[in-house]
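Technical annex B. To support the medicinal chemistry partners, we prepared a structural model of the target in complex with magnesium ion, based solely on the information shown next.
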Amino acid sequence: SELRVAVAANFLGTLNQLAPLYEAHSGQTLLISSGSTGRHYAQIRNGAPFDVFLSADVERPQLLVDEGLALADSRFTYARGVLVLWSDQQDLPLQGGEFLHSESLQHLALVNPRTAPYGAAGVEVMQQLGAYERLQAGHIAQAENLTQAMQYITSGTAQAGFLALSQVIETDGSIRGNTWLPDVDSYASLEQQAVVLSASPQLEAGQAFLYWLKSDQARAVIEAAGYGF
Amino acid sequence: MDLSSADVMALWITLKLALISTLALLLLCAPLAWWLAHTACRAKVLVEALVALPLVLPPTVMGFYLLVLLGPRGVVGGFLESVGIGHLAFSFTGLVIGSMLFSLPFVVQPLQNAFATAGGRVLEVAATLKASPFDRFVSIVLPLSRRGFLTAAVLSFAHSLGEFGMILMIGGNIPGRTQVASIAIYDHVEAMDYAAAHQLSIILVGASFILLLLVFALNRRFKVVSVV
Amino acid sequence: MDLSSADVMALWITLKLALISTLALLLLCAPLAWWLAHTACRAKVLVEALVALPLVLPPTVMGFYLLVLLGPRGVVGGFLESVGIGHLAFSFTGLVIGSMLFSLPFVVQPLQNAFATAGGRVLEVAATLKASPFDRFVSIVLPLSRRGFLTAAVLSFAHSLGEFGMILMIGGNIPGRTQVASIAIYDHVEAMDYAAAHQLSIILVGASFILLLLVFALNRRFKVVSVV
Amino acid sequence: MSLAMSFQVNRAEFQLQVSLELPDQGVTALFGRSGSGKTTLLRCIAGLEQLPGGSLSFQGQVWQSADEFVPVHLRPIGYVFQEASLFPHLTIEQNLHYGFKRIRAAERRIGFDEVVELLSLQDYLTRYPDQLSGGQRQRVSIGRALLTSPRLLLMDEPMASLDATSKQEILPYLERLTEELQLPIIYVSHAVDEVMRLADYMVLLDQGQVQAQGPLQALLTDHQLPFARSEQAASLLKAQLVDTDAGDGLAGLQLEQQPLLISQTHLSPGRLSPITLGATVKVTIMARDVVLARQLPEAISLLNALLVRVVALDTDLDKSQVLVHLQLGEQALMARISKRSAGLLQLQPGQQVYALIKGVAVNS
Amino acid sequence: MSLAMSFQVNRAEFQLQVSLELPDQGVTALFGRSGSGKTTLLRCIAGLEQLPGGSLSFQGQVWQSADEFVPVHLRPIGYVFQEASLFPHLTIEQNLHYGFKRIRAAERRIGFDEVVELLSLQDYLTRYPDQLSGGQRQRVSIGRALLTSPRLLLMDEPMASLDATSKQEILPYLERLTEELQLPIIYVSHAVDEVMRLADYMVLLDQGQVQAQGPLQALLTDHQLPFARSEQAASLLKAQLVDTDAGDGLAGLQLEQQPLLISQTHLSPGRLSPITLGATVKVTIMARDVVLARQLPEAISLLNALLVRVVALDTDLDKSQVLVHLQLGEQALMARISKRSAGLLQLQPGQQVYALIKGVAVNS
Ligand SMILES: Nc1ncnc2c1ncn2[C@@H]1O[C@H](COP(=O)(O)OP(=O)(O)OP(=O)(O)O)[C@@H](O)[C@H]1O
Ligand SMILES: Nc1ncnc2c1ncn2[C@@H]1O[C@H](COP(=O)(O)OP(=O)(O)OP(=O)(O)O)[C@@H](O)[C@H]1O
Ligand code: MOO
Ligand SMILES: [Mg+2]
Ligand SMILES: [Mg+2]
């Protein structure tokens, strides 16, 4: 039997690592549909055939619960994102956000703060550093998701950008490129929550998967992928 | 090359979707295009403008509206559900409908242009040679409109291959059911599996290129005709 | 209606982008389409297939490859940077180039079809009436290809309005510079601000509809001509 | 008479108003100046102009009436358009086959190979229309129409771009078709010689109105009409064949009890079987080929001399010429001579004179 | 002689191989069966077929040679195509203006209104081509070509769909143009009467080869060629005008010291100024209009009698006819008579006979 999982794009890579483990554990395969959280939310409201939703934020799962589309008691934080300021150019002074004040900063990659929590977090950090005002006027390249933000940087078009730690961490735990990790308390928590959807014909299986996500086996993988809890 | 089975499946769904929606569009739009090419009705202008509209909205947004319409709470989806057929969102049928709607202008306009020039005297001649209206359409209009059909088919087919915003929205990116190659590529990119993304892109582009080459080469072998 | 100033700006950029890229495409593709319509060269088939290819890949993926190409580290962008022009990513010029590339098949194919039927005897007649090749093109081919140009312009314009996957990638969605209406609508949907999404969609669709109506109505007033 | 029609077409600056009953056999010539409505009338008959108020019936079958309209493709007509209008995407063979294969085999009265040979199209069958000359295209379009084995053939200047030799090959075939297959033809032409040769009946159109209609013979000699007054004026007479071989390649006819010699080659060009003795032969004598004499001249190369009576003299043709209407038994003959000669001969109505006709000037 | 050309065209089953020097004045008729290459040759002259190995020069200017090719639009030609080929998106007025406005005003030798009036196009100026009849379209296409004030006019069966009256209006105008504007015309036509009337020079094409060329007069009487042998055979003679009014609407000519009366109306149709006394007049006499007699008959409506000498008899035309070649002073005349008459008259070469010609049969 298959469990149909809608997952936020930023967690897709991690979930792909988890899937075989869970299959070995439960004998159940995961049918993974990745995408933006906003889109998944709209689709679930319109009858999308998913059992479980791994959102990129807290808001959408909460809304689904409020609308009776998700089981209230299934909602929990499966991962907490970590924001990084990142560049593939080693010589940029990223530490302490110094580069954000630099005149040589042309374009800074950022996910759309209106739709993505990482974007909002990045804005918070910039505001605290007093750099947002200046950068907002034409220096911020807004991506629709984290992958695009990273592509802006790797193509060399944006010199640096705010990304998720999960994007730049290697399998051995080392961090690629030039990174600055802002203090996790300097921005609103990047909690990512999961819910079981009420329309699912296999509620127990969904709950079992979410329960497994809290296991040490799963948490080790999630942590290695650059998330906290 | 070691394509994952999901990728192979995605390629297959893509091909099926592009073929079915292109064929269905050609069949459905031919009468519409013929009417547009020959009517003197004033409403024609309205229809012409309407046909082009699906292009104006971003695919995902169009997809969103379609989703609302075809989903279980939508007017269409709700009705279909109530008569026991089931709503159309997240189904292959829904994909086909979305894809067709979106490629509508690419089919109607070239056909309309072709029909507008393929008419005239030769049709009258054919009538005097005992060809019924349908026979005339098949034996005269179709061959003389070959290039129009070719353009319509190529644009619609290629667009169905590449379009994913709308398909993602009403299809739901369900592997094996509604996950098409373009979404699979997108997913690989999202998962930063660039190798898989490049590989699938190359296959999609390569296969399309060969297909297009064949189609155009075949077309070359026909007589180029202008109605003198 | 209380559109945010960002939305107004986005609409304005969208309009500018669609107009400029459509005009530029019509100008650039006319010679190409003419060549395709009249050459007996075998390479023609190759070019025809190539022209249709931009449609095959998902726009975001195409956009990614283009970004890599046009960005400062890319072959094209790097070269332009080195000669002091600056790379093209995240600039309006880059948007125009991306948009043009993506609408290429919508312009080339209808024009090619129109040119293929608008040639022939009347061009020879025009030559005997002292019209130079360019003069013949302007005075005979253009008017006889009117419908082809109309189709090319409508498809390209409408597609430029709605496309956003590629534009996002190479434009960087920089408000006031490269943020177009389609991305703005998309953002509203993603942000669950459906009211704003509806409003902007209605404006975009409504304005486009009126524009298309005008264009088609104007077209109706011309004489419908088939080369007898 | 059973091709009855009545049509009214209103165009910007042109009205066609026609009510006609035409014979449903033989060739009816449609004659008239450019723009007089010939093509428009043919289109109405074919059903290509669907206009209210018209009516048309052919051999008792209603093709158009207030509440009926047989569509073009169900009418058993063949139509040779004024422009060849071949199908550009089909080869010549396919063009010819187009109508042919849409007819049930049992209804085919005209054979494919026969038409191809007659119109000398063998060499072009695999070509496309744009690889033919103007005249070749026109021949194909004639063949294409014939191959539907129509019961009524409409031809709009079918020979306009053909040379004399081609015409000489095709005209006799058309004559044969009308006779052997009882195929009536409505034939638009500007060439008087073609019309005289082919037609039995004539309709004269002028600005959309029927100016005159009737048997060719009557119209050609009617001095109200332009024919008799033109340089092409001719008389049509009926004679009996009495001697198929009168020596020197001549054949002997009997015309109103008087002998008339004509060339044997003129007797039955293209006909399958030679005309039998005693058969009626149609003879065209151009007015300008008739010489009048008060007495029979000798040692002159004018083979035929017919005794005729002067009926009237038409003197207002031209400053220098007169048209002399003559009576030959029951039939009418015209002579176009110079005013000077008329004066010298002191021609008067009632007078008996000899009409001298060159043997070679007789057309059958 | 200064329209010199040499062309070679190779098509699937057709080769045109032509090397010609044509006069650069007057009308040159291009004659030949359907498919003989007339249109192909005109296209070569116009520059519409750009093929290697050809050469062409007109009045000393090279239009085509091994290393030069003047493109069509830079050649001062007018071309009337075999099909009218009007611009479908332009009104008749715009069609006519198309070439006209592309010519500098100083170079315009033919006026807009003049052409419109002559071709009776006033009523159609605001219409579109698909609203005209076939003949009307053809007239527009003639006008359109004329309005570029060409220095060489190429006409491909320009009158094929015109009625006799329209032809009678247009032909004299063309004659006038050749004379007054020194405009040479190359004229393709199947109508022998048109050619005889208009042409000074003739080229006979057969299967892409020049079968004969020369002054019209010489070709028409050359008994190697099909003309002399056809029913349309005619002789062209030169005579002097000696009396503009000989009474009865006649004019008197002097032909090789013998008098010849012709109708005044035939003398100068369409010409601006009447021919002056003593001028040379071109006279066409059809062979079938010549009657031979051993002695002068009396009281007969044959106005002209010319004393001629029999040169030769052509007996292999036809079973019943002979062509008699006659000598009239320095010029040649032909008579087509029946074999029977030739026998009765016992015609022999060297013999003197009277050639009787109807006054009305003389064309100038
Ligand atoms: N594109 C072509 N390919 C092959 N053969 C051709 C092509 N065009 C013309 N021909 C052939 O060339 C020959 C000459 O054609 P052309 O048009 O010059 O004839 P024409 O003398 O003008 O005849 P017509 O009096 O019928 O117009 C014809 O036999 C024709 O079939
Ligand atoms: N679509 C149209 N609109 C207006 N007038 C038209 C239209 N078609 C034809 N006419 C006019 O109708 C008249 C008759 O045309 P028709 O074609 O019947 O003439 P026709 O006798 O065949 O002449 P031709 O010998 O030149 O072919 C012409 O004066 C023409 O200008
Ligand atoms: O036009 Mo799209 O939404 O980028 O596939
Ligand atoms: Mg006509
Ligand atoms: Mg020709």
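Notes passed to the chemistry partners:
Residues 234-363 of chain D form a domain with the OB fold (Dihydrolipoamide Acetyltransferase, E2P) fold (CATH 2.40.50.100).
Chain D touches chain C at residues 83 (CB under 8 Å).
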